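Below is how a single chain appears once it has passed through the pipeline. First comes the sequence as given, then the structure the pipeline wrote out for it. We keep one example in the README because the format questions we get most often are answered faster by looking than by reading.
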Amino acid sequence: MEPEELLNEERNNEGAKKESPLLSLEKDLKFFNESIREVSVEIMVEGLSAYPIFIAHQHELSLGEMILNRYDLNTEWSIHASTLEEFVEKGVIKEILKDRFINSYKNPHDFMCVFVVTPEGANFVYYPYVKE
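Resulting structure:
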């Protein structure tokens, strides 16, 4: 038996769970906080959309526009900027579900709307901006 195995005995008894990728996403979102907020405001001020959406991913993606590249920034996640309108246009959000999305959309000045894409699937998450 290796010494490391003795030190991690409790974790091994729990089945040695793999760390969730969402933990690294939270770390990266905190790091990206100000940049994402600036892009969100820009999208709204320029009249592109009242509903900015940011896509967090760890592989190639052809949705939205790359704003934060994980390889350039030495992070785990890359971020693309998009809008509700693009999500509807590309069929990610069906036209008939657009109103439901709008009704559940949180205040974009307080929360970033993040579409998290993982190998297991994708889902929307609202992450609060860090107040300074």
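The longest strand covers residues 111-118.

See the next section for the split statistics.
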